[in-house]
Design brief:
The chain is of the alpha/beta class. The chain contains 15 helices and 15 strands. Strand 13, helix 14 and strand 14 form a beta-alpha-beta unit. It binds ligand SAJ. One of its GO terms (molecular function) is NAD binding.
């Protein structure tokens, strides 16, 4: 190991090293906060000056970081948020936490990483450690960072050090956080890995070294592709049980009593979020470059993407029981966020369900106590309706898409309005008006129909 290595290792161990986080979102801000808490001076770089202003005002925009905590970190004087990449001149180790979305045609969009690398090249100096955290396909660290810096004449493992360490932030998870979630890390050389382990070990409880950045990149994608495929599997089982007149939720509850060899997943209206809908597509895209076509990934993606259509078709069957059609029906979607008790709408299946109801001629509205508005496909801002049980009574059908824990399920089910429950949220209520995703539509008898429609 050369002088650069020993100088950086010493600076890390003494916490003299100046760390940097590029991208101060739901991954980068908690990471920067943890680094400052552990005694480091940290530069935070983000292109969005509004974020920088909020940080200086001690106003947290990330659910898992309280404004108090953020204010303490800023008051410590060891956190320097900026939009100016020139700050890279004074840092010893950089963690890159920028988005890796999908393009329109579901291909990886690594443009955010490319922009960061261009700026690193502008302010490049010897002895720096660079760790990419953004979820991406195997080979990204080598292709988009190592090759770029080596083209400038720098030698990896000597002039600069390079790692990949996947982010494992699970927003609103009260049990697991940046510090206590094990962190996988792969280095381009032994010296790179040793420095990566040294710096991450100072603010992450458990660091898991692996033999290369590719192994670390692949591990993250397999973690989330595992979820996508298993969710798709149980979504398919739900549609099968629906066809066979079996309650898939009861089946899953029975199956999960098996103490080994089974892991429950639950059907739903589709999958949302910043990870599960996207990560598998990064993997299948890269695999195609090796002429490997992952049928599991493509099938899972299409099965999960089909669920909003299944929800709307089932709604049609339910309304049919009341001699109504979707067209001209008043439909209320309960919950729009992609998972309970947060307001995050990214890739939320509820948005697709909303658009499909509109396309079918329904008058559709939504209620979500967390996600208060969104822009629909036409760019129109749609606002959540107020919580008003009298008003809820007037809808022809309600569709529970997100099972927020603060909804009054008893009051809602007592309204007698037909409900399509896509999350088994009404499981403790026996009502002829509650229809489950993954179970057949029970017929409303004539007498009952008059009662409800009349
Ligand atoms: N979903 C189902 N059925 C299930 C589980 C999830 O339909 O059995 C749906 C959810 O409703 C949601 C989507 O899938 O719309 C994604 O749900 P998620 O629980 O995977 O939540 P995410 O997207 O926040 O995933 C994150 C991931 N964390 C990271 O990538 C660091 C994922 O790896 C975690 O496993 C997950 O949180 C978690 O366990 O909460």
């Amino acid at each position: 190991m050369n002088k650069q290595y020993h100088n950086l290792l010493e600076a890390i161990e003494s916490k003299e090293a100046v760390l940097c986080v590029v991208g101060l979102g739901y991954v980068g801000l908690p990471l920067a906060v943890e680094m400052v808490k552990q005694g480091f001076k940290v530069v935070g770089i983000d292109l969005d000056s509004r974020k920088i202003d909020k940080i200086y005002r001690g106003e947290s925009y990330i659910h898992d970081i309280s404004s108090n905590t953020l204010n303490e970190v800023v008051q410590s004087g060891r956190f320097i948020p900026t939009t100016d990449y020139a700050a890279l001149r004074d840092v010893d180790a950089v963690s890159i936490c920028v988005p890796t979305p999908l393009s329109e045609n579901q291909d990886p969009d690594t443009s955010y990483i490319v922009t960061v690398v261009e700026n690193i090249k502008r302010y490049m100096r010897k002895g720096i450690l660079i760790t990419l955290e953004s979820t991406t396909y195997p080979g990204t660290t080598e292709e988009l960072i190592q090759r770029e810096l080596e083209s400038m004449g720098y030698v990896v493992g000597e002039d600069f050090f390079l790692c990949f360490s996947p982010e494992r932030v699970d927003p609103s998870n009260s049990k697991f956080n940046t510090f206590n979630t094990p962190k996988v890390i792969g280095g381009t050389t032994e010296a790179c890995l040793a420095l990566g382990v040294a710096v991450y070990s100072r603010y992450v409880e458990t660091v898991v070294p692996v033999s290369s950045p590719k192994v670390a990149e692949m591990s993250k994608l397999i973690e989330n592709t595992f979820r996508s495929v298993n969710i798709a599997f149980i979504n398919e089982m739900a549609m099968m049980c629906d066809r066979m007149g079996i309650d898939v939720w009861e089946v899953i509850d029975a199956a999960k009593t098996k103490p080994f060899g089974f892991m429950p997943f639950y059907p739903g209206p589709g999958i949302g979020g910043h990870c599960i809908p996207l990560d598998p597509m990064y993997l299948s895209w890269k695999a195609k470059g090796f002429r490997f076509y992952s049928q599991f990934i493509e099938l899972a993606q299409s099965t999960n993407d089909n669920m909003p259509y299944y929800v709307v078709n089932k709604t049609s069957k339910i309304l049919n029981e009341y001699a109504k059609s979707i067209k001209k029906s008043n439909i209320l979607i309960l919950g729009m966020a992609y998972k309970p008790d947060i307001g995050d709408l990214r890739e939320s299946p509820g948005l697709e369900v909303y658009e499909l109801y509109k396309d079918s001629g329904a008058a559709v509205e939504y209620y979500d106590p967390y996600a208060t508005s969104f822009k629909d496909k036409a760019g129109v801002t749609v606002h959540s309706v107020e919580y008003d049980l009298e008003k809820f009574k007037t809808y022809d059908c309600m569709v529970l898409v997100t099972n927020h824990t603060n909804l009054d399920y008893s009051a809602i089910v007592s309204l007698g309005v037909p409900i399509l429950d896509t999350r088994n949220a009404f499981k403790e209520f026996k009502s002829p008006h509650v229809y489950k995703l993954g179970h057949s539509v029970q017929h409303v008898d004539e007498q009952e129909e008059v009662l409800v429609v009349g």
